[in-house]
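The protein record passed on below.

***
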Amino acid sequence: MDDAARETASGRRAQPERRPRSGRQAAFGFIFASALMNSVSFGIMIPILPNLIRQFTGGDTAAASEWNLFFGATWGVMQFFFGPILGMLSDRVGRRPVLLISFFGLAVDFLFMAFAPTLWWLYVGRILNGMTASSFSTAGAYVADVTAPQDRARTFGLLQSAFSFGFIIGPTLGGLLGQHDLRTPFIAAAAITTLNWFYGLLILPESLPQARRLRAFDWKRANPVGSLGLLRSRPGLLGLAAVGFLFQLSQVVLPTIFVLYTSYRYGWSPRVLGFTFLLTGVLGVIVQMFLVGPIVARLGERRTVLAGGVIGAAGFLWYGWAPQGWIYLAGAPVFAFSSLLMPGLQGLLTRRIAPNQQGQLQGAMQSLQGIASIIGPVIFGETFAWSLRHDTSLHAPGLAIYVAAVLLAAATLVGAATAHAPAPEPQKA
């Protein structure tokens, strides 16, 4: 008999813990700062890691590209297997210890990169990071712990803006620090992450009270297959998870082909690419910080999810069609509203799950994201290559982006069927 059955049999029902509003705000402030610092440290390596890999391959760009894909796929595999484990672990021992494990593992990973004598040492660092990188998913569970259900979509939007801020600041900082030495950005990233770990060790409060934690760690549910059982446990949960997976898969297209696509089609220089990264990042932050809350309050979570999906699919179609660079950029303010989808979706997901299952839920979603990060580069990279080989007859260099639009449209259709208002939030698993 599970915990919920025991409570039903005994006629008792756990009551939600009341936290002072100021305490909730302070706790979210801690997690926002941690997310920002971690995102900066991740962003630092974006313009540097491929060049460091190329340095290890003796300047062979083709070999470096293959290794870079191998690194990314390995990280996704580690996320697929270890995301559910760390998610359930946070339900059992609390969010704070798992966040500290993640921060520490990331710091060690950056040190491996900074001082790695061979490519294989660099690869070991990526494996370690993939095993311990639960900061984003555990942060999501933390937000669910400290935020009232009706406020979660807005708060998830704010948390997402912390990640966006980090990915604006990080690459710029990495480019500046890596001008003379490719190792320096990784030392800086290790220092930032270590500071984040120390900050969490001294200041970050625990968000999951002892009374709300799992009584025991269950290995049968702490694996990718078992985590799918959680997604089937409540009506509509699996459908919402499918929306999140399709959305994440569609978003892989731009990191995979953006530089090659815009260079091939529009002849964009690195300076224009940098401006575009900055523009799209700022637009995303504006939507996440200032517009998600009012839009959710006006439309509700379901309509916000659907609006984000429809607008995002339309934005992808625009990007794939745009015959000139300035027309492509004109679509950026529209595409920024695709950022509405995930906060609304997280709000719906977390309201269907008990407090001591939030970590499992985020771990399951992280596992699905790992799958997307593995198969996405193959789907979009191969589609883009095929479209270029047949460009003289097909005239569709944006074919891969059209595929992303179809995936996001499919996510919207699934959302229309499943993203309904949930029943009252369960209090115990």
